[in-house]
Amino acid sequence: MHPRHLSPRSPLSKPILQRQSYRCFSCSLRLFQTPPQSQHQPQDASTTHFGFQSIPSASKASRVSSVFSSVASSYDTMNDLMSLGIHRLWKDHFVRSLNPGCPETTSTNHPRKPWTMLDIAGGTGDIAFRLLDHAALINDDHESKVIVSDINPDMLAEGKRRALSTPYAHSPRLEWLEANAEALPSSIPSNSIDLYTVAFGIRNFTHKETALREAYRVLKPGGVFACLEFSHVDNRAFNAVYKRWSFGAIPIIGQLVAGDRDSYQYLVESIEKFPRQREWRDMVAGAGFMVPGMDGEGEGGWEDLMGGIAAVHKGVKPLN
């Protein structure tokens, strides 16, 4: 896949833990303003963050797994309530911007080559189903396939259940893989993937730089790394409202809808601990990727959605 296959930007791009309960929106906001650890404070290599907590690095994967096992069956319903359904528009836009699938060609010298796509932390199948739909409906490609990889078997089970209501439940175009994105198995060899996607998942990884290096390794030259993730709002007034909603309302909604306040408290804290847009772009570039949209002065290189509540980052593996 050549980097120019990325499509133009869309108009949409414009602008657990036992702990003390939060009694009100203002209490939650004050707690957010004085987190236990600064977002950019260096940590010892043996520790990492779990929300606002500092924990041993070796325990993070199991702690995160417990969160997602808890929320697996209600995860998208909860996202609908938290975002008023907007996360679905973000995912639609994300997939459209990638234009997955290989368009039919009349050239005998360049026959169609189906893509192999890897959707990381994609257990519920949300992105995978969209990738396959777009390939078939837009590019008339019924051969490209998606491997859905997730470290959590409960999320994969939820995705397989949802696949039963799609055309892909028993299709060779859809595979499921329980794996750690920081150490992908030999079934995904180097230089074998055309498109690597990760949506609303990479902020939960213990070693994000390691996952980026693995993404680079498995992608073919010219292949694309694409990340959709909650991010950071720059407008101070909007940011204050958004943080009050996130820290005051979302855990309460989690308690009411899923009976699980602590997991959703972790989820909003994990957003706050994720690198800001510029820092994450530099981490993608530091893994060896070319970053589309970054100018010679180091500006740009990502796409903010709704003022930075979420952002899309892409990287292209060089051809040589």
Describe this structure in words.
- The protein has 320 residues and is of the alpha/beta class.
- The chain has helices spanning 25-33, 57-71, 75-83, 86-98, 126-137, 153-163, 208-218, 236-248, 250-258, 261-273, 277-286, and strands at 47-50, 53-56, 116-120, 145-150, 174-178, 193-199, 219-230, 303-305, 310-316.
- The strands form two sheets. A seven-stranded mixed β-sheet has the order 5-4-3-6-7-9-8, sandwiched between helices. Strands 1-2 form a two-stranded antiparallel ribbon.
- A hairpin with a 4-residue loop joins strand 8 and strand 9.
- Helix 1 (25-33) packs across helix 8, helix 4 packs across helix 5 and helix 9 (250-258) packs antiparallel against helix 10.
- 39% of the residues are buried.
User: What is the N-to-C succession of helices and strands?
Assistant: HEEHHHEHEHEEHEHHHHEE
* Main structural class: alpha/beta
Helical content, roughly?
25-40%
What's the count of strands?
A: 9
Features:
single chain, alpha/beta, 11 helices, 17% strand, 320 residues, 7-stranded mixed β-sheet, globular, two-stranded antiparallel ribbon
Question: Which helices and strands, and how do they pair?
Answer:
Elements: H1 25-33, E1 47-50, E2 53-56, H2 57-71, H3 75-83, H4 86-98, E3 116-120, H5 126-137, E4 145-150, H6 153-163, E5 174-178, E6 193-199, H7 208-218, E7 219-230, H8 236-248, H9 250-258, H10 261-273, H11 277-286, E8 303-305, E9 310-316
Parallel strand pairs: 3-4, 3-6, 4-5, 6-7
Antiparallel strand pairs: 1-2, 7-9, 8-9
Helix pairs in contact: 1-8, 4-5, 9-10
